[in-house]
Design brief:
The complex is a heterodimer of chains A (281) and B (311).
Chain A: H1 3-35, H2 57-65, H3 68-99, H4 104-118, H5 122-135, H6 142-166, H7 170-178, H8 183-194, H9 196-212, H10 215-220, H11 229-238, H12 244-264, H13 266-273, E1 278-280
Chain B: E1 4-6, H1 24-60, E2 62-63, E3 67-68, H2 72-79, H3 81-115, H4 119-134, H5 137-148, H6 154-159, H7 173-201, H8 205-213, H9 218-246, H10 250-255, H11 267-277, H12 281-302
Antiparallel strand pairs in B: 2-3
The chains are: A mainly alpha (281), B mainly alpha (311).
Chain lengths: 281, 311
């Protein structure tokens, strides 16, 4: 290719990528713009692209007047508890299959079982779970969501954690074991500190998934006592008359938490989404 | 950061590092420990995840007040013409989004891989591509309400069509399908891009250089050298995306609620409607069982190509 031809290609690519980026970014821009509009702005004959009188009133209205602050707390409580349970269980399952001489068949069985759950559509299991939760009196209670979320994110936690544990050489622990340390002591003082970054990544990604979950929360809760934030946001959308700025503010809040978490853990997001097939260095 | 690694899940031979204590008894003791540690927790979780299957099956073969009814619920579920309508629409949705996302993501990855050399720009694209993926589906629904809604949606504003004859993106049949599918494409093309871009980084530069010396065109270089490295990833992406299309619910529920008519009443929305809108839990359970069995079959086929087998 000639020098000039190459420069032309370069220019064309840059323009093309910029156009793609613009198309992808624009809806988010409009969401933020709408979330900063006043009530009066909503009645403009033609909606403006930029908020004419920017205000944070919609955020205050969503969080306090509409009481979504409580839903936010529910989401955080459910997310943190479910993540904690999932990580503990994942550790109990990953430790024997990565640190001990488990047979390859057992290892494969456990990992395959976990991965198969990822392919199960939630709508197929929500019906039996709904029946169970109602029978044992946990309908519209946070513990029901905590258990369901912990189970549903367990496969992800197992696969990510297994990836991190596989990278820590067995020899390090074995040295301590040869010196007479107990397995529990070696786990606590060697493995746990070494896998700290990995655990943090799993915590962040599992929490973000818990935060975003909608269908189970929608079906297993009924009142603000147990509703999560996404259920509240959905309620803003389907009401008879949509209050656009409040709805947009709810959307921005729902996005902000997973987005900031994922930016912190950006090196592990792909690994989380592809079950460790793609790993970032 | 743009340097990805596609891990082939390094399988470590466990025996090699335990040779310090080669005594068989020690080895046996450790193997016993595996089961002692694994069984209680894994057993509990396994039971917890299996109960729904059994319960769904029980619900599917019984009717409240009448007890065991055999396959009656299955018969009703499979005789419902709306089921086939829903399957057709789900298939159409998949036929729109899967090729667009995979070809689009692959195309952009190829473009960036070939033309963007700066690591800073590559890292910036990496972060930008991650943004749509991490947005909760419900919020994605909200975002696109603001795009497609009549009177307030920005699309019609930009098109200069806000009057009574404006296109109704969310409530007229072919448009609602396009609108919901476009949302899927918006959210998941970047995902395909990220996976494919990571795949391009695994192609050994020596083979690319050798091909270029031999005078390979851009196309033959892609077709014969890079594509073989990407094939396993393409399959993987396809499997994940198929599983995701079957579970599509949140953003469609927010945007159209499954309407107009049955245009966007995809499988998950259909089962939800049967179970919770019509309160026909028997029929919904029968559908759930059918879906579970179908997914088990699908997974059995797919798992041959997935990394679990290499673990």
């Amino acid at each position: 290719m000639t020098h000039r031809g190459r420069r032309l290609t370069r220019l064309a690519t840059t323009v093309l990528l910029a156009v793609i980026a613009l198309v992808f970014a624009f809806p988010l821009f409009y969401l933020i713009a709408t979330s900063l509009k006043t009530k009066a702005d909503l009645f403009e004959p033609v909606p403006s692209l930029f908020p004419p009188n920017p205000t944070i009133d919609p955020y205050i209205s969503v969080l306090f007047t509409r009481g979504f602050g409580g839903l936010l707390v529910n989401s955080i409580v459910v997310g943190l508890s479910a993540t904690f349970v999932a990580i503990c269980v994942a550790f109990a399952i990953c430790y024997p299959i990565t640190r001990l001489p488990a047979s390859p068949r057992l290892r494969r069985f456990v990992l395959n079982w976990a991965l198969s759950l990822r392919f199960l559509p939630p709508v197929a299991v929500v019906i039996p779970y709904f029946a169970i939760v109602r029978t044992i009196g946990l309908y519209n209670q946070l513990p029901a969501l905590i258990v369901v979320y912990a189970i549903f994110n367990l496969p992800l936690a197992i696969w990510m954690l297994r990836g991190f544990l596989d990278e820590i050489p067995l020899e390090i622990e074995e040295a301590a074991l040869v010196d007479g340390a107990s397995r529990w002591y070696a786990f606590r003082t060697i493995l746990l500190p070494l896998s700290r970054t990995g655990i943090l990544a799993v915590v962040i990604i599992v929490f973000a998934f818990d935060w975003a979950e909608f269908m189970f929360a929608f079906i297993l809760t009924a009142t603000p006592q147990a509703m999560t934030f996404p259920v509240g946001v959905q309620g803003l959308v389907t009401q008879f008359e949509i209050i656009w700025n409040d709805m947009a503010a709810g959307g921005v809040i729902a996005i902000l938490i997973p987005l900031s978490l994922m930016l912190i853990a950006r090196r592990h997001v792909m690994s989380g989404l592809t079950f460790g097939v793609i790993r970032d260095k | 950061m743009p340097g990805h690694r596609v891990s082939g899940a390094p399988a470590r031979p466990f025996g090699s590092s335990t040779r310090v204590r080669t005594a068989w008894t020690e080895r046996n003791r450790q193997e016993q420990l595996v089961y002692k540690l694994l069984l209680p927790v894994f057993g509990t979780v396994f039971v917890l995840t299996t109960i729904p299957f059994i319960l769904a099956l029980i619900q599917a073969i019984t009717v409240e007040g009448r007890g065991f009814v055999g396959l009656e619920n299955f018969g009703r579920a499979l005789a419902n013409p709306l089921l086939y309508e829903s399957l057709k629409q789900t298939g159409l949705y998949a036929a729109i989004v899967l090729p667009t996302e995979i070809l689009g993501g692959l195309g952009i990855a190829l473009l960036v891989h070939r033309t963007v050399r700066s690591n800073v720009v590559r890292a910036a694209i990496y972060i930008a591509a991650m943004i749509p993926i991490v947005i909760p589906q419900i919020a994605v629904g909200v975002v696109f309400r603001l795009v497609y809604a009549a009177d307030y949606g920005v699309l019609n504003v930009l098109l200069g069509q806000t009057g009574p004859s404006q296109p109704l993106w969310l409530s007229s049949p072919p448009l609602a399908m396009i609108a919901t599918a476009s949302v899927d494409i918006w959210q998941w093309t970047p995902f395909v891009y990220l996976v494919m871009f990571a795949g391009f980084q695994t192609v050994p530069s020596e083979s690319v250089e050798a091909a270029q010396v031999d005078g390979a065109t851009t196309w033959t270089q892609f077709r014969h050298i890079e594509l073989p490295y990407l094939r396993p990833l393409l399959l993987l992406v396809l499997f994940f995306r198929i599983a995701d299309v079957i579970r599509v619910f949140d953003h469609v529920y927010v945007l159209t609620g499954g309407g107009p008519g049955t245009t966007t009443q995809f499988l998950s929305l259909y089962i939800y409607r049967i179970g919770f809108k019509f309160s026909d839990l028997g029929q919904a359970s029968a559908l759930a069982v059918v879906v579970m069995v179908a997914m088990i079959v699908f997974y059995t086929i797919v798992s041959r190509f997935l990394p679990a087998d290499r673990g």
